[in-house]
Every structure is written in C-alpha cells, then in structure tokens.
C-alpha cells in the first residue's frame, strides 16, 4: 500500500506532505513524493531537462525530510505536458491507495482552496484524493489521525462511503463518526404559508436522514468484512444557513479527516465532484478525502 503525495515544485506550502505523512504513519504505509516538471509542446532540450530534473530531485529530497520519522518514502520526478495526467499515472503505477494534494496558495489559510491542478484531478482520479487545507500542519495531533468523520446522505452509495471510512478508522485505531449535512435557506417557504410548515419539513428531513444513517450502519454490520471495519461511535445530523455554518456546527479536533463520496453522475470508479460535494469541500477546515464512486473497500 502506498500514498502518493503530489508536491508542487513552485510553492512553499507543505500541507500535502504533512497530510501524506499523517496518513502514512497512521495507516502504516509508505509515501511516494511526486513532483511534475511541466513542459510545453516543444519540450526542453536534453541538457535543460536534466538540469530541471536534478533541481526537482533536490527539492523533493529536502521536502521528504519533513515527513515523520519512520515513514518509508521515495521520490518520483516526472516530465510531462499535463500535471494532472502525470499524477494519475504516478498513482496508477505505484498502486496508490490515496493521492494527496495541497491547496492553492490563493486560498485562505486553514481552508481548502482547489487550484486548477487539484480541480482536474478531483474530476477524474481513479483513486481517492485527499486535499489538505492551506498551511496544514499535523503537529497538533502528534502527526497521527485521531478521528475519521464520514459524510453520508440517504442515497444508496452511503454504505459504500461509510465502509471506506470504517476501514480507515479500523486500521488507524481511531473513532468513526457519521454525519449528514443539510443547508437551510433563510426562507424555505413564503411567509403566508406559515412557519410551522418549515419546521415540519425540517423534522421530516431529519427523520429521513436518521433512518438513512441507521440503514447504513445495519448494512455495514452485515458485510462479510465487518471484522475489519470500525463501528460507528457517533452520528450527527446537522443543518445551517450555509455550508460553512453547518460544518462549523460540528466539533473538530487536530487529527480529524472528513471523508466523502463523489457525485453519482461520475464515471464508474472515477472521482467526480458535483455541486454539493464541491461546496462541502470548500467549507471544510480539516483535510478531506474524496472517494471514487463504486469503490470496493476490500480491494486495497
């Protein structure tokens, strides 16, 4: 099992490395730190390419030294026209369980900002993609996972997403939390319809969400690999006037990760972010792992 960290060669942010190291140390696996040298249609001369590769290798070697002690790590420098395609190739060739990326430097510190490379990777990755908030550091948790939170809805894929989170929590030996989010607009219905109807709709939605969570837990316990899956220690149904408010309504701690599925419109076994997943991703203040659709947790 391997975690591939896509480390940008033109940034000082080490959030991806910190997250990759945290996951690798918690899950007892190794890390490949991948840097991509992008060239245009003409391509560099052989001498220029060799100089670029040497500089990139030195950069990655220095960056790799920041990983937690005891985590096996190697470098992988690639020359390619497309950075997302090169990262996909690296993940495939190294049989990666997760591809880890950092946030754009244009984003707010402590929040996830999806840059152009991460956006393209998130819409086509064959493996789970983990995104670190800008400036992320794992020092506060001792560079270890402390809890896995899984975002589920009432759809049929919830059990699959929950199983992936349960597998991760079991391997890391940490609690598993299940949560369903909903956004409540300021006015859901015209005032003349009365406010009681809005409360009734919210109550009905909460009951439906809780029923979906119970169904997912029951299906999880009936799986043939249930012994390798952590039980759900906590569940929550939260709502708010915005994604930011809903996410902030939960307690978060150092070492938390949020795991969620991708759009049901995605191609089979590929990540694709729909509008809901994108909004949740950008509201998160902890690292987020996005799963490809229809991924069997027993595969890796």
Automatic annotation (TrEMBL):
It holds the Pfam family Usp. SUPFAM superfamilies: Adenine nucleotide alpha hydrolases-like. Residues 3-132, 147-292 form the UspA domain. InterPro entries: Rossmann-like_a/b/a_fold, Universal_stress_UspA, UspA. Transmembrane segments: none annotated. PANTHER family: STRESS RESPONSE PROTEIN NHAX, UNIVERSAL STRESS PROTEIN UP12. Belongs to the universal stress protein A family. This is Nucleotide-binding universal stress protein, UspA family. It comes from Sanguibacter gelidistatuariae.
């Amino acid at each position: 099992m391997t975690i591939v960290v896509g480390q940008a060669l033109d940034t000082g942010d080490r959030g991806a490395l910190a997250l990759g190291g945290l996951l690798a140390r918690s899950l007892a696996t190794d890390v490949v730190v991948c840097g991509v040298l992008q060239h245009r249609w003409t391509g560099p001369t052989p001498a220029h390419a060799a100089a670029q590769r040497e500089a990139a290798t030195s950069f990655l070697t220095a960056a790799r030294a920041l990983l937690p002690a005891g985590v096996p790590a190697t470098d992988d420098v690639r020359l390619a026209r497309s950075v997302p395609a090169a990262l996909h190739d690296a993940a495939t060739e190294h049989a990666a369980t997760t591809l880890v990326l950092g946030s754009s430097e244009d984003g707010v510190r402590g929040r996830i900002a999806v840059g152009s490379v991460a956006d393209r990777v998130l819409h086509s990755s064959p493996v789970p993609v983990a995104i670190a908030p800008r400036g992320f550091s794992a020092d506060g948790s001792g560079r270890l996972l402390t809890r896995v939170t899984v975002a589920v809805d009432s759809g049929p894929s919830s059990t699959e997403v929950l199983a992936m989170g349960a597998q991760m929590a079991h391997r890391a030996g940490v609690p598993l939390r299940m949560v369903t989010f909903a956004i409540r607009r300021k006015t859901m219905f015209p005032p003349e319809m009365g406010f009681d109807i809005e409360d009734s709709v919210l109550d009905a939605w909460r009951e439906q969400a809780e029923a979906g969570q119970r169904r997912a837990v029951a299906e999880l316990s009936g799986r043939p690999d249930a012994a390798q899956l952590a039980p759900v220690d906590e569940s929550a149904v939260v709502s708010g006037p915005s994604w930011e408010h809903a996410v902030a309504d939960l307690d978060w701690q150092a070492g938390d990760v949020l795991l969620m599925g991708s759009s049901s419109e995605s191609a089979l076994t590929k990540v694709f972010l729909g509008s809901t997943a994108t909004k949740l991703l950008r509201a998160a203040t902890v690292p987020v792992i996005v799963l490809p659709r229809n991924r069997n947790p027993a595969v890796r």
